[in-house]
Amino acid sequence: MSTIADNIALVSSRIQAATAAAGRPENSVQLLAVSKTKPAQALREAYAAGLRDFGENYLQEALSKQLELADLPLIWHFIGPIQSNKTRAIAEHFDWVHSVDRLKIAQRLSEQRPAELPPLNICIQVNVSGEASKSGCNPADLPALAEAISQLPRLHLRGLMAIPEPTEARAEQDAAFAAVQTLQASLNLPLDTLSMGMSHDLESAIAQGATWVRIGTALFGARDYSQS
Ligand SMILES: *Cc1c(COP(=O)(O)O)cnc(C)c1O
């Protein structure tokens, strides 16, 4: 069985190869380790192998891992759907939120971000797969939403996030990620982040400008939901 350190080395070399193939600068793509359903010990191993940024989808699970790992200087990213009653804990306990798709949630995060912390880094999740996806803002609504979020005092709007409909066809992957990059470029805002690409499509995402790839399975193995 391969260890988490082996998997990190493999994923890092995939990222490097894709970055070079795209003619992009070395280290222009960061690895976000998606640790949902995985025990704190797995994150500890990933930390020992050099990772610092972890993405979690479920608030209670994330908070309990944060307690177990409080001795490590980790950077926490919330990447799951957000209900209004979860915004306060997210504003208090995370460094980044990748999954903001409506203004009400952004307003609450800004109001609830503690004064002693830096502004919360935000990506707007955009839906580029039409009816195939329930999450993410409609591209037609993106300009107004991005403009409004960029004005909120305790948020730092960094860019866009997307989860295109899964496909193994490279041309379809490229088209979806290119659409996200085009949307980002069409906004008249100083954005530096594109959060896109997962275990099966990181090469395509990097070719289309991803700056964070969010990788779970290729680092930690398949997820087992049967216990929950
Ligand atoms: C689970 C998840 C990932 C990781 O997906 P893998 O296919 O396991 O790499 C990335 N982003 C989001 C938003 C996720 O929920």
UniProtKB/TrEMBL annotation:
Its cofactor is pyridoxal 5'-phosphate. Coiled coil: none annotated. Residues 17-223 form the Alanine racemase N-terminal domain. The modification N6-(pyridoxal phosphate)lysine is found at residue 36. It holds the Pfam family Ala_racemase_N. Keywords: Pyridoxal phosphate. GO terms for molecular function: pyridoxal phosphate binding. Belongs to the pyridoxal phosphate-binding protein YggS/PROSC family. Pyridoxal 5'-phosphate (PLP)-binding protein, which is involved in PLP homeostasis. This is Pyridoxal phosphate homeostasis protein. It comes from Pseudomonas hamedanensis. The lineage of its organism: Bacteria, Pseudomonadati, Pseudomonadota, Gammaproteobacteria, Pseudomonadales.
